[in-house]
Each structure stands twice: as C-alpha cells, then as structure tokens.
Amino acid sequence: MLNVTKHWEDPTTLHVNREDARAYYIPYQDDVTAKTRKRGRSPYFQTLNGQWKFQYHASVAQVHEAFYQEGHDINQWDDLTVPSCWQVNGYDQLHYINYNYPISCDPPFVPDDNPAGLYVRDFEVPSEWDAKERYVVFEGVNSCFYLWVNGQYVGYSQGSRIPAEFNLSTYLQSGSNRMALMVLKWCDGTYIEDQDMWRYSGIYRDVYLLARDKTHIRDAFHKQQFAAGGNQVTLVSEIETTGRLNVKAELKDATGKPVAAAEGVIEDKGSLKLDVDQPRMWSAENPVLYDLYVTAGDEVLLSSVGFRTVDVDKGVFRINGKAVKLKGVNRHDSHPALGQTIPLEAMIEDIKLMKQYNVNTIRTAHYPNDPRFLELCNEFGMYVINEADLECHGIGQAGNFKDGCHHQLSGDPAWKEAFLERAVRMVERDKNQASVIMWSLGNESGYHVNHIAMAEWIRSRDESRLVHYEGTAPQAGGHPNTESLDIESKMYFTYDEVRNYVEDNNNHKPLFLCEYSHSMGNSCGDLGDYWDLIYAHPQLMGGCIWEWTDHGIATKTADGEPYYAYGGDFGDSPNDGNFCIDGLVTPDRKPHSSLIELKQIHAPIRVEAFDLSQGLFNVINRHDFVDLSHIGLHWKITSNGVTEQQGQIWQLEAEAGSEQHISLPYDFTALNGQTAELTLSFWNNQETTWASMGYEVAFAQFVIHEAQSLARIQEEITASPIAYRQIQAEEVQGALVITGQGYRYVFSLDKGAFASITREGLEMLASPLRFHIWRAPIDNDTYMLGKWREEGYDRAKTKIYGTTWEHTEDGVSLNVQFSIGASDRYPIVRGEGVWIVHHNGVIQLQTQVNVRENFPYLPRFGLEWIMPAGNEEVEYYGYGPHESYLDKHRSARKGRYLTCVDDLFQDDYVMPQENGSRYGTEWAMVTNMLGMGMKFASSRPFSFNASHYTPEDLAAASHTYDLKPRQETVVQLDYKMSGLGSSSVGPQLLEAYRLDDKAFTFELWLKPIFKEDE
Fold first, then answer.
1. Which own/partner pairs from 221-224 qualify as long-range (CB within 8 Å, at least 24 positions apart)?
2. Which residues pair with 620 in a beta bridge?
C-alpha cells in the first residue's frame, strides 16, 4: 500500500494543512464583473473542473505506485469528468441503503478493502499569478482525500459535503503543474455520514483555484443590528485579513443605487459599520436583496444582503416580527444521471418548481448543499434550514437501539471535534446567506454532549438565527439539556400528537415537523388534516414533507427499455429497495399528484362564500408580507362541461394576513336549478422569476345545486324517449338469457354475475363481473399489508350460495347471496346482490354488505368490470383532472371530463401500485371511439377507475418495465376505497379514511349506451 499516514481511521485527525473555514465568495477585479456572478470572468478564478485522469482500485491496499509524482505515466488511465460520482460512471458498486451502515459497525475502523479513486490533472498557472497567494477549493469530495501538487504532499481532508481549501502558494509554479488526489470511499467520517441515500464517492462538486493578493480579506461576517422598531439597521461587517489592509464597503440597492458606505484600515480583525434607514426587508415572498461590495487591494468581494430577523416570541416562530408558516420540503442532492452532482440549471429547476407549487422552505437533508444553491434561495426567495453533514443512524441500528447505543458517538468525547467541526464549517461557509433562517445539528444521531457543544458554539457565533435538532425526545434517553435548541422538532408526529402538543400548556416552544407526510408512491393523503391544524394554531410553525424527489437512477433493461432503478437493482446488498423512491416529483422532476395536492393546501389564498347565491365572497390573503396586487382572478360557472358565465378581476388588493370582500356579477337564476360548478382561479398578473404571467397559484370551487345532481342520476339513466318492448328472460344451460329491444344479457346463475352484456350485438363484457376488495398495494399500506394478507384479502374469491330470479313490474330481478373469502380463513364479507334489469336495458344493482367483525378494514369494495379491447374513451363527472382519493382530493376540481384510459393511468410511479382512481364520481362512461360502451352511475358518489391493468397486474410488478398492458379495459366501480395516508413511515391511516364500515349498501346503475345518439 502507498506509504501515507492512515488518517482515515482517526477521528481526532480531521484534516492536515486545510485552511480554516470561511464564508463563500469569489474575488473579482471590479464591481461590474462581480455583479455578473460569473466566476469564470474573474481573473482570480480558474476552474479545475473538466477531464481528469482516473484510476479505480477496489482497495487502497492495491495502490502501490507513487502515482502523484510529476513524471508518473498516466497515459493509460481512464478519463473521468470532474465533478462526478464515480459510481454513475461505471466504477465500484451503486448502492442504496437507508440507515444501516454499508460497513461493519466498528468505529472508527473501516474495511481493509477500502475502495480508492486516484485522480490526476495537469493544468497551467498564469505567470500573472506569481505574486499572488494561490489556493485550491474543493467544494465536495466524498469521503476523504489526500492531496499532492507537483509531487509534493499538501494535505488531507474529510467531511464530504463541506468545502476544503488549501494554500498552494509554495507548491505551484508558473506554467505546467500537476495535481493528484487519492479519494477513499470510507473513513471514520463514514460513521457520521450515514444519510438515507445512494452512497456515492469521488470529487462530486466543483474544484477551482483562487489567486489572492498577498494581503487579502480572508473572511467576512455581515451582521445586522436593528434599532428598536426596525426602521434602521446597522450592517456590521466583521472582517478578518491576512495583514494590514485598507478596506472599503459599499452597499447598493437592487437598482444599483448606493445606500451606505464605510472605509477603514483593518489588520487581522476589524469591522466596518454601514447604517441603513428604512431598509426593505427580505422574505421568501419578497426577496429584496442589497449588494455589498467589499474592496481591498485589487479584489472585490460581493455578498448579497437580505435584511431580516428571525425569532420566537411567546412560542410563535416569526420572521421580521410576523408569525410565519414554514411550508417546506426536505431536499437531497439527487440527479437521475449524475447522482449527487447537481448542475446549476437543475438547482434552478428545483427552486422554480417549489415556488410554483407553493413551497417556501427547504431543509437541506441532511447536509449543506452547494453554496450556489443557497445564493439561488436568496434570489428566488426560499427559507432554508441548513443542516450539518451529520447522521449516525446506523450506530443505533447496529445495537437495536438498546441501552442508549444510538447516543454512543454523540456522547463520546473522542468524537467531539468531529461533531463540532461539521457545525463550524457549515456556519462559517453560509453565515452571510439571507435564506438561512435556522442551523440544524444534523439528523438521527442520538443527542448528547457533542450536540450540545455544536449548539453552544453556533449560538456564540451567530445570534441571528435559530438552532434546530430533532431527536431530543425524553423517551429516546438522550441528554436532558435542550436549552440551546430554540424549537421543538418532531418527525412523523401523528395528527393527535400534534394537537396534543398545542393543547399542553407546558409546551412553550414552537413545534416544527421536520419530517412528515412521507411521500412514497401514491401518498400524502393526510396533508389537509395536518394543515387544517397548523393554520389553526400559531404555535405550529409548519413542517417539511419527506421528501422532494424520487432518487431513481436512470438506466435501461437488457433490451433497452428505460426505467428508474432503486436499491438492489445493481446487485447492491444490503439494500433498502424502493425506499429511496419517496419524492413529490419523479427523478426527472415531473410532479406527482401529491405535489399538486400540496400546492393547493399550501395555497396563499383562501376563499369563503359569504352569500353564494348573490356572488359575495371573502378572499383571504395568507401571505405573510405581500398584498394581492400581483394576483388576478378569473371566475367561471360551468354546467355539464359547458362554460355558462365568466368574468375576471385584474388585480386584487387584500393586504398580507387580511381579507377582501368581492362581488362576482353572475346570474344565479339563469342556471334554472341545474347543477353547476363555480371555479375561482387566482393567477399571477405579472411575470415573476419563477413563473410566467397567468400562472395559477391557487383556486377555489363551489358546487351549485349539488343536492339536485345526485337526485337526477337515476332519472337520467332510466329515461326513455320511446316505448321499449317487453323484456324476455329464459334459462339456458345454467344461465339466464335476458333480451329486450336492442340488447341481450347473459347472467350466470352459478357464478352469480353477468357473463355477457350486448347492445345491438356489441359486447360490453370481456369476462364475468365480480365484486372486489383488493387494491394493488401502495407504499403506504405498509402497516396493513401483512394483516390483509394474513386474512387472505389478496387471494379472496367469491362464493355463491344461490341465485334466484323473477319477473317484476320493473323487468327482471335476480337475487344473489354471496360471500368473499380466502382459503383456510373465515369469509371476509357476506352480501346480497339484487340485480334488476329494466325494460329499457338499464341494469340496477343494489348490494347489501356485511363485513366480519374484528377483521382489518378493507382496501376497497366495489365491482370490477372488464370491457373488451377498443373501449378507450372515458368521460365522467367527478373530480379531476388528476387522480383523487378519499383523503387526497382538495387539489381536484369537480367537473365533466373527457379523456382516455391511458391518460387516467398515473405512469409516474417508479414502483407500480394503485393509481388513477377518481374520487367522488357521479357518473362515468367508457366507450369505443364511436361512443359505444357503458355508462355507470350511482345515487351517491363512488370511486371510479379505468385502466389496462388489474390490481393483480400492478401488485405483481416491481418496476415499470414489468407492466404489460392488457388490451381489455379494466373498470373499477367502488363503493369506497380506503384513503392513502402517509404510513410508509409515520402514523397509520386516520380512522376517518378507512373503509371500516361493517354494514353498508352500494347501488349502481349500469347502461349500455351509444352516447353520440343519446
């Protein structure tokens, strides 16, 4: 093995020769160039991104040659782009694991076969830099590295997601130079970098050189001191230099107008003060930024300044003195092709999407992001909970969380500096970023004296922000001292636990849900309930959904079919499967329906109908700082899919936190009692940095004459403009053949179900009807899946006890006694189905169902109707245009929708599962392109779905490439389907959303139609 000191197993050696942490900046030669924020335009910046020579070794023990020497032959080495993760470039093993360590739990030791990546880069240094101090900055290297320049050892660093800077002045020369790194996959730091993610390695963030004046500004901390009342602020720039310097500071507003200036001589440490009257305050809603130019020698350092305050007052979290709700997400660095290397445009895309979907907060889970990401958050307006690169979940997992083992590292003095340094390096880098409102001590790392040391150091360094950490619950057995933590933070608190917290007068801190509503697959059914509670109580400051994006890796099957891979797909072991597929957006950033739901629940505008018949409404502005002058309103009344009336208000005016009374000039009487929908759409009346003019930020909807709608369903479906001939019924070989004018139905008396339904010779059934209780499991069915399968819900079959029939005045009536159950289990349900075939061919189903006591609640109950190939057109009246469920439909709008079977299917779930259902449907038609097919209706809203997959098809698939669509159309007509919840992690489904009815009645009206003629 190469002769180097084995720092990677020594938690007391965190670096060798690395510079002290400092604020992020790039030196420029003048104000104009600095304002562009284009680093490459600075003569003092030189990127080392690009092509490096690379050699991978499965073990550091295989590295024998002094590869870092100037004359070492690297011509046969591979080429590798930097920045990048070497696993996504075909080296080593792509590996996803949640909280278990990928190595034996034996801190600080790591496996002897510790993979190593050798990097070498030849580059030129201009002669103009000869008189400069020259530094190299590595923004992120995972997990540790040794550095050589021109054959000389420079130093060592670990801490994967925080910058490492080295002074290369004595190592570089004008002209050609060679830099070499040995990067190791694991080090003692791996034990405190056990985040839930793909485990990547390499130089995955930017690398660059900086040329500095011999005497220069090393660091700057721009603090804000507000006078009483907040009408004046003093910007105190605490500056650290490498010698005696004349320093000038000038503050300019967004238009470039000078606001304040100061100048002074600073040697080593000093400060400049700039007084600002009537500062415009920064917030996520109105991200007003000033530019602070600090000039010394030949250099200009530019910092964005956002004036704002963050505090807690009487248990209420506040920004700029106002109570604020944090509407957040947890965000990992994740790219489907590049892994943890994130291009600048991808960062911008994330922030724009978040803004468009009413997200105002990001928790950087669970490490500091690229510093440019924070600059974008300053610019676009996003609150950031900046989290230290610290998680040692695996230490507890290895010990089964017994005897306080999960506090082992957080309470070990030998690891104090390793913990503390991660707070120091994060805070020092990001202390000037306005978007950062809280510092977080990491994630799932126990809680003990090392955390307390982190918190106390942060409070001593930065009094302007709050300190956050989750994991201090008394039952966890950690250190009892939580005085340095400003808020109470909880993961996956249940609805009742949140409510109990605010009702307990002994709780004085604001409550923050740092993780809640686990958005894995078809999920987030509990968002509305949480936010009804959060809006109602000032002490509840909001939360961050877990999490922003699915962490799927873009890859292809052997025959070239693209798909997103998850744990285990690359032979990685141990792994946590699809647990990384838990985002609000797909890996390529397409919104899941959960994000659409979140957008409406987070909406900054709410509407109350004061007098619906007179068009009188209250528009409530839920913004914290801005009025509604940037918002316009378009309203329309639709009936039966046709817009009857519409209008708009170009500009609203409600102040932040207040309401505005509006009158909409529609004619209520012109509807003549028809069911109609009044939809109010609120949109940007001007372009913003994150959305175009006309972009809808929120909507509200009211149904007019809703009670009459359901009452007319039966009348409409049974209405007949002509007199139908008498219905005929005849038993033929165990089946009842029912004929009438234009139709012929065959009912299997043995199976207790229709086996054929034809109109004008056109078959509407591909297989016999059946009652159904199973749904393709969603990720959130975790808690219930075992119980359901234990009772045989997934393999249940129908038992027919007997079928009788008779002619009645209405037509033909059939009575079926049935049960549904599985082998070796008691029947799950028993029921009676009464089928009435009316003279005009309409089939009426009345079902009485009794569910066995003490059985788990049902996934669903309904009728499965499989239609022949070619029935692709779908029209329905209910909620749309996207999928909706019992507990996830606030973002859906009631109306008449014309679509197709393929478009009902939500193909964006990486792990196939139940999807595409439409909650609250009143009627639906599934037909061929000529409008020939079936109409389904009920006297009460039902759940409807049409797909080319049965629940069993979806349940059998583990990836999208496993899905092979049927030619037939599978229609699900459900009395009810249990809700979604978010219990893949966290609380079980709320009782209100469970199909736990032990006795119920379900009615359907079924009609073969030629809809173009009807």
1. 221/23, 221/431, 221/432, 222/292, 222/303, 222/305, 222/432, 223/464, 224/307, 224/308, 224/309, 224/464
2. 606, 659
C-alpha neighbours within 13 Å on the C-beta side of residue 833 = 29
pLDDT digits (tens, 9 = 90+) for 641-681: 999 999 999 999 999 999 999 999 999 888 888 889 999 99
Catalytic residue among 250, 391, 444, 470: 444
Token representation of residue 346:
């991808």
For 485-488, the CB contacts below 8 A with 24+ separation are 485/455, 485/509, 486/312, 486/438, 487/312, 487/317, 487/438, 487/511, 487/512, 487/541, 488/512
What are the residues facing 885 on neighbouring strands?
888
902-919 as b/e, with b when 16 or more CB fall inside 10 Å?
eebbbebbbbbbbbbbbb
Nearest to 843 by CA among 834, 852, 854, 853: 834
| pLDDT tens, position by position, 605-636 | 999 999 999 999 999 999 999 999 999 999 99
Q: Is 444 a catalytic residue?
A: yes
Kindly state the tokens that stand for 200.
Answer: 């990547």
Q: Is the peptide bond before 881 cis (omega within 30 degrees of 0)?
A: yes
The phi, psi pair for 254, rounded to 5°, reads: -65, -20
Which CA distances in Å does 867 have to 178, 591, 738, 771?
A: 69, 31, 19, 15
- Cβ pair 915, 946 in contact under 8 A: no
- Catalytic one among 139, 193, 515, 872? 515
User: In the chain, helix, strand, coil percent, each to 5?
Assistant: 20, 40, 40
The residues that bridge with 933 in the sheet, in sequence order, are 927, 1009
Q: Are strands 164-167 and 27-28 parallel, antiparallel or unpaired?
A: unpaired
- Judge whether 597 counts as a catalytic residue: no
Cis omega (within 30 of 0) on the bond before 875? no
